Structure formats: structure tokens, C-alpha cells
Amino acid sequence: MNCKFIFLMIIWPLMMTPLFAQVDSDDTDLKLKLDLPLFDLPYQIDAMNTVGHGFFSSYANPGMSQSLALTKDIYSAMHFGMKRLNDSLTIAPMWKYAIYYGGTVAGLLVFAYVLPFGYPWMQQEYTRSILTRFGVNSFNGAYNYNTVNGMLTGVTDKSLEYFKNEAPHDFIRMYEANIEGYLLLSDSMLCNSFVYNLKDLSNWTALVSTFLTVSKISAPIAAEYGLADVDGDIKKMYENDGGQESRALASDYFINWGYELFHPHEPYAARGVHPSGDGIARYITLSQLTEDEKHYLIKQGFLGYLNLLSPMLYGFRTFSLGHSGFEGNFALHHFLLLLVRIHRLKYS
């Protein structure tokens, strides 16, 4: 009998019960919810085969649910700690506010630019998990800022050619997975705040995550209105090249997503030869898109601003629903993943 099947049957009950912890302080408004899936199957079987050093090596390439949970837990713990510190201080209110709000900003910046497991780390892990499913290993630049701006590297053109030929629609999703991760992080933080009646600044993490989402899809808009030289920035990435495995997976993920969305069955090599002569030109520029494709990206970019329409992002946790005794709220999301699925039906 297949060894993988036997392993899945043994581990299945454990997979269904993630590691869960909830800490309540004496203050009923101060809660900490931690949730970390120990097993993510069958994905971890693919990760084990991709990394190639036994089952525990699969944790080097965490799945989407694991990376999302870890990042959410870190930010939740940071907010919990800052709120508890603020409640325990007996100094002047002005200093309390300075420490509380300044410390929260510092915590967000530290995990964004100094330590792994924050926003940049999670979004790259979402992309890496797509690659991992098809046996393509990679390196998360959030661990080492000597790489290309902390971006995802360690991938050869041959492996990308194989991946696109094997699963073209998963290849498209690879380019929007980081945006998907940002939106799910924002949604998870807001859901915890709403359901558990948190009184901390969890909405700040959600707001930053949502702004990062918007920034990821704004390049075509900025170029359209002359606010940025997007193609010029992309072309600079070809300079000082150190070889295929040192190159970033993509320049602008959103532009690459749009290009692949309209060319799902075009060979990866059709992008052309890298200026150095080594490998394929990975970085799609706006000038490589047709006018219709460019306008489609601009439209999706503007629709992405719908993600900012949620009172919870700005500190309005709940609204009373009349005299019913219930409370509610709302949020709008625009997921590029749904568009991938629609195009898959169209081009399959």
C-alpha cells in the first residue's frame, strides 16, 4: 500500500485539530487568541518532497494556513502585550498614549523591516507555497535582506518553465498569492477583534495589511497618471545580475499576474532572453501588455480600493443593530483569485 496514504490516515485526526490557545486576563476586554496548525496535509507531503530532508523539513516551506496563523499570532501577541502594558502604567496619560501608540507603530515596523514572520515574510510564503506544491524550491528573502530587496529568489528558469507547462492556472495564482495573503491577514485580525471583543489596536495591523494590498495593485494606475516610471524601475532590476537563482521571481507581481492571465498557455520562454544572455527575461513591463490588458489591470487596481471600505479598519469595531441586542459590521473584499478561476473556465 502507498506509504503516503498510510501516513495520511494516521495523521489525519491530528491535522483536524490545530494547536489552539486563548489567554484571558482579569480584564474582560483583554484577550489573546493564538491559533497555529501543526499539520497542513496533504500540502506538507509536497513540501517534504520539495525540500527533500524528511517530514520535519516540510516546516521550512510552511503552507498558507500555517504562515498566516504564525504572522497573525505574532501581531496579536504584540497588540496584547502593548495593551496590557498600557493598562498597567500609572504615569501621566500623555506619556501612556505616547508609549502605547508609539510602541505599537514600532512593533509593526520591526516585523515589517527587521525581523521575519511579519508582513513581508508571510506574503512570500504564500507565493512559495504555490511553487512548493509543484516541487519548485525557493528562498524567502525576508530571512536575509542581502537578497533582492527581501524578495523571493532561488528559482531557476527551467523550473518555472516546467511549472507553467504543468499547471498554467496555478502559475497565474502564484503571482496574486501575496495579495491574497495580505487580505486574509487583514480579515483574520478584524474577525478576532469583532468576535472576541478586543479592545486593542488589532485594526492597525489589518489597516497596514490592506494598504499593502492596495500598494501592490497600484503600479499600472501610477504609470497611467504619470506618477511613477514603473517600466524604468523594472528595467533596473536587470542590472547587476548575479545569475538565475539570485534573481527575484518577478518584478511587479500584479503586472506579471495580468500578463499571465491573458497568456495562460504561452510557453514561459516566450518572454524572451534575459539581457545577460543567461536564461529568460522574467520581468514583465507594462509596455509588453496590450492596451486592453493594461486597462484591465487598471480597472482591477481601482476595484482593489474597495478593500479599504470597512469601518473596522478605522477603529469602529461594532454597530448596534437597533434594539435587537445584536451588533454587526461589514467589510468589502476584492479577490484576484476569483478572476483566476473565471479565466480558467474561459481558457480551459
Structural class: mainly alpha
Please report which band the strand proportion falls in: under 5%, 5-15%, 15-25%, 25-35%, 35-45% or over 45%. Answer: under 5%
How would you sum up the global shape?
Answer: globular
The span between the termini is 34 Å
* Radius of gyration of CA atoms, rounded to a whole number: 22 Å
Averaged pLDDT: 87
Largest sheet: 2 strands, antiparallel
Please give the count of helices.
Answer: 13
Q: How many runs of DSSP E, i.e. beta strands?
A: 4
Helix-residue proportion:
40-55%
Across the major sheet, the strand order is 1-2
Low-pLDDT runs of 5+ residues are 1-20
Describe the structure concisely for a colleague:
The protein has helices at residues 3-15, 43-51, 64-88, 93-113, 119-133, 157-166, 168-195, 202-216, 219-224, 230-236, 253-262, 291-303, 336-347; strands at 19-24, 31-36, 319-320, 327-328. With 348 residues, the chain is mostly helical. The protein has one domain.
3D architecture notes:
The structure is a single chain. The chain is mainly α and 348 residues long. The protein has one domain (63-135, 145-347). Helix content is 53%, strand content 5%. The protein contains 13 helices and 4 strands. The protein has helices at 3-15, 43-51, 64-88, 93-113, 119-133, 157-166, 168-195, 202-216, 219-224, 230-236, 253-262, 291-303, 336-347, and strands at residues 19-24, 31-36, 319-320, 327-328. The chain has a two-stranded antiparallel ribbon. A hairpin with a 6-residue loop joins strand 1 (19-24) and strand 2 (31-36). Helix 3 (64-88) runs antiparallel to helix 5, helix 3 runs parallel beside helix 7 (168-195) and helix 11 (253-262) crosses helix 12. Mean pLDDT is 87; it is low at 1-20.
